[in-house]
Design goal:
The protein has about 240 residues and is of the alpha+beta class. The protein is built from 6 helices and 10 strands; from the N terminus they run βββααββββαββαααβ. It has helices at about 45-60, 65-80, 130-135, 185-190, 195-200, 205-220; strands at about 1-10, 20-25, 30-40, 90-100, 100-110, 110-115, 120-125, 165-170, 175-185, 230-235. The protein has a 5-stranded antiparallel β-sheet. A 5-stranded antiparallel β-sheet has the order 2-3-4-5-8, covered by helices on one side.
Length: about 240
């Protein structure tokens, strides 16, 4: 059994260039997408929407790493196709698909997926960014990514290149509750991993989990903060 909650907020910007989307196949399979558009002047909004629509529109219930990776590659081609000389819009993307017993995800950029089991963080994706490279080289700590000067230098995004490398992952869903959080950098920038886990343990459902984290975000943001979006998923096996 799964429960899903979604939200997207413009933050302190003029336009919301994030897109969140969920497709369902039957009663026990879903595909969830969070995309963060890059490019400004509405271009990012077009890119994130186009990528999300293609992935959800072409997904027909498969929970498979190769299939999901190919869907993201097709979305990359779709974003490249709508670029213009005036606006070479791009978008990050993180996607989760699941069925009983199995979950598969894919991502490109710095939108993240977190996986929790019985309230404890077990996994998170690694950003495709200059700041993440700094962590891998031992130059900064993972927490220092959040406000690092190079944090917004995204090294992979849909629409950036015809040759996109997509990271994929999978896990078996063990007995108990597995929770996933997919979110843009405008969200995880302000909500720490230990805060996500603490709010998860206190929450009554995915909607409540998001509400608790949003309160933390609202208390920390400064004027002009980025769009912030998330999808929360609870799966009980």
């Amino acid at each position: 059994m799964f429960k899903i909650a979604t939200y997207s907020n413009v933050g302190g910007r003029a336009n919301n260039e994030d897109t969140v989307m969920v497709a369902r196949h039957g009663s026990d399979r879903f595909c969830a997408v969070v995309a963060d558009g890059l490019g400004g002047h509405g271009g990012g909004e077009l890119a994130s929407a186009r990528a999300s629509e293609l992935i959800c529109g072409r997904w027909v219930g498969q929970v498979d790493r190769e299939v999901l990776g190919n869907l993201v590659l097709a979305a990359n081609e779709a974003v490249l196709a709508i670029q213009t000389p005036q606006c070479s819009m791009k978008t990050t993307v993180v996607v989760l698909t699941a069925m009983p017993g199995m979950a598969v995800w894919a991502h490109a950029g710095d939108s993240r997926l977190y996986r929790f089991h019985e309230g404890k963080l077990e996994f998170q994706t690694m950003d495709h960014s200059s700041a993440q490279i700094g962590v891998m080289l031992g130059q900064i700590t993972p927490d220092q990514i959040r406000f690092h000067p190079d944090r917004n230098r995204v090294l992979r995004a849909l629409g950036q290149d015809t040759e996109l490398k997509v990271d994929t992952g999978s896990c078996e869903l063990r007995p108990g509750r597995t929770a996933f959080l997919l979110c843009t950098d405008g969200f995880w920038e302000y909500v720490l991993e230990e805060e996500m886990a603490d709010d998860l343990r206190r929450a009554s459902d995915p909607e409540d989990w998001i509400t608790r984290m949003r309160k933390r975000l609202a208390a920390k943001v400064c004027e002009g903060n980025d769009n912030n979006s998330a999808i929360a998923v609870w799966i009980d096996e």
